Amino acid sequence: MAEIVSLAEGVAAVVHDGDVVAMEGFTHLIPFAAGHEVIRQGRRDLTLVRMTPDLIYDQLIGAGCARRLVFSWGGNPGVGSLHRFRDAVQQGWPLPLEVEEHSHAGMANRYVAGAAGLPFAVLRGYMGTDLPAQTDTIKPITCPFTGEVLTAVPALNPDAAIVHAQRADRLGNVQLWGITGVHKETVLASRRSLVTVEEVVDELDPRPGALVLPTWAVDYVAEVPRGAHPSYAQGYYDRDNAYYQAWDAISRDRDAFRRWLDEHVLAAGPAAADRRR
Amino acid sequence: MTTPTQQQAGWTADEMMTVAAARALGDGMTCFVGIGLPSTAANLARRTHAPGLVLVYESGTLGSKPDRLPLSIGDGILADTADAVVGVPEVFNYWLQPGRIDVGFLGAAQLDRFANINTTVIGPDYRAPKVRLPGAGGAPEIAASCRQVIVVVRQNRRALVDRVDFVTSVGYGRGPGDRERLGLTGGGPRLVITDLGILEPDPDTCELTLTRLHPGVTVEQAREATGWPLVVADDPARTDPPSERELAILRRLEQTKGGRG
User: Fold this and answer.
1) Does the pLDDT value for residue A136 go beyond 60?
2) Nearest 10 degrees: CA dihedral of A162, A164, A169, A175?
C-alpha cells in the first residue's frame, strides 16, 4: 500500500546518495518539483536514468547531483541543446559525467525487461551503428529458434523511480492519461517509487485511455500541484514552451545557471509548487 | 543560402526545403515524424496534397491531426488529436520494429556519402567530443525499420561529409549489400532533401547522387557545399518553386508553432 506523504518526505524516503534514480515522463508529466527537491536535499553521486534527460536532468547535472547518466536523447525538445549536460560532458563542470548511451527503443525495452523481472530484453536495434562499441550494455544475441542475430540490452532496475501523474485516490491508487511514456514500466522496474500527483481525490472516476498504477505497486504518493511544470499535465495545464525557450539562455552560462538555481530551487522550499498556483 | 532568384521569388531556401519534403509524402502513407522540419513538412503535406497522411510520433501518438505545429514530439495536442495513444515501448516494438511504417523522416548533424547519419558527437574521440550532440533518440531503429527513409538536412561541408564521425543511424553502411548483411529490414534512405536540391542513392553503388536542383541553384553550388566529390545525374531535374498556396499554408503553420492556437 502506498503511503501518502509530503514531497520532501517522499524524496527523502526513495532517493539516497549513490542511488540509480529514474525520473521519467516522455515530454508529458515530468516530475520537475521532485527533481528540485532532490537538488535541495543535496543528493550526490547519483546515476540518473531517463530516456530524454530534458531540462529536469540538465538542472540536476548542473547542480552537481549526478555522477553518471543513462539516456537516449539529450536535447532541449524543439529548442536545441542541453547546455549543462554538454558542459559536464565536454568540460567536466561542475563534475565529470559518465554517460551510458542508448537509443529510445533500447531504453524502453530495458524498462520493459526490468518491469517483467527478466534479466534482459531483445530487439532489432543498434545494428551497424557505433553505439555498441561505446556502450557495454548493448550485445548481440542469437535467436535459439531461428539463428537470427538480434540485440540484447540488460534490464533496468533503478533503486528509485519518480514520476508525476494526474491523480491518486486516498488509498494511493494512481491514475494517469494522455502520453503515458514509460511511466508504468519505470515504476514496476524500480525497487522504490514515488509518484507526485496534481491532486488526491476521493474517487478515481474512469477516464478514456487512462492507466492505473494500483496502490500496492507504488510506495509513496505526494500531492504536488503543478509538479510537472514546465512540462505539462494533460487536463490540468499546458506545456510552458516559453520556459523551455528561456532555459536556453539561462543554461548556456554557468553564472546565470547558478543564479537561477539559487533563486528558483534552493531559496524555494518544497512548498514552492503550491505557491505557483 | 539565398540566391538572387529566391530573393525575387520571395521565399527562402529553408521554405523550399520544407515544401520539397512535404511533396515527397504521399496521401495515405504512414509517417514516423521527428520534431522540427520533418514535423513541419508532414503537417504541411497533410494540409495540401496528402490529407490522409498518418502521422506517428515516438511519444506514442498514432494518427495525430494537430491544428497547430507542436514544439516537441510530446505536446498535448498530439495526444488530443490522435486515433490512439500507446506507450513508448509499444510504439517502437509493435508499430515501428515489424515494418508497419512507410516513411521515416530524419534530420542529421552529419550525413555521409552512403547516407549514414550522425547525431551523437562531432570529433574523432567519443569520450572527449568536440561537440556533444543530443544523441540517437528513435533514429537508429527508424532508419533500420521503416519501408523508406527521407533525410532532411541543410547542405554544407560541415553537414555533408565523406565519413561521419559517429554512425548513429545506418543508411547504406559502407556500400551495396551492407543493409542486408546487418539484417536491417527497412529499405533505407531513398531521398535526401536539402536547401539546394535532392540527392538519391545510386542504385548500383548506394552513393548519394545529386538528382534535382531547387530553383536558382547551380550544380557548382551543390558541389561546393558537399564534403565529397559529388556525382551529379545527367541533366538533373529542377524542383518546381513553392506555390503561393504552399507558402501561405506553411507560413500560417509556422506562426502556430508551440502555441495554443
Assistant:
1) yes
2) -110
Find the mean pLDDT for residues A8-17. 98
Q: Is the pLDDT of residue A273 over 60?
A: no
Residue A117 pLDDT > 90: yes
Distance separating alpha carbons of residues B50 and B30, to the nearest angstrom: 11
Which residue spans of chain A are classified as CATH 3.40.1080.10? 3-102+157-271
CATH class of B4-255: alpha beta
Classify the C-alpha dihedral A204-A205-A206-A209 as positive or negative: negative
- Please check the confidence at residue A68 and state whether its pLDDT lies above 80: yes
Residue A192 has pLDDT above 60, yes or no: yes
pLDDT more than 70, % of chain A: 97
DSSP B208: E
DSSP SS3 for A258: helix
Q: Which cell numbers in the block locate residue A252?
A: 548556456
Q: Rounded to a whole number, what is the distance in Å from the CA of B174 to chain A's nearest CA?
A: 10
- Nearest by Cα to B75 from A238, A112, A79, A96: A238
Could you tell me the residue ranges of all domains in chain B?
4-255
A125 HSE (CA, 13 A, CB side): 30
Minimal Cβ distance to B132: which of A51, A90, A134: A90
- CATH architecture under which domain A3-102+157-271 falls: 3-Layer(aba) Sandwich (3.40)
Q: Which of A52, A54, A89, A129 to mutate to test the interface with B (most CBs of B within 10 A)?
A: A129
Report in angstroms the alpha-carbon separations of B217 from A188, B198, B233. Answer: 55, 11, 15
Sign, CA torsion A120/A48/A198/A234: negative
B4 preceded by a cis bond (ω within 30 of 0): no
Phi, psi of B255 (to 5 degrees): -70, -20
Query: CB–CB of B114/B207 below 8 Å?
Result: yes
In terms of DSSP bridges, do strands A211-213 and A174-176 run parallel, antiparallel, or are they unpaired?
Answer: antiparallel
In chain B (261 residues long), the average pLDDT of successive 10-residue segments reads 61 97 97 88 97 97 94 89 97 98 96 98 94 95 97 97 98 97 96 98 98 97 98 96 97 82 35
Question: Which candidate, B137, B55, B145, places its Cα nearest to that of B94?
Answer: B145
| Window A:10-49, CB contacts with B under 8 Å | 26-28
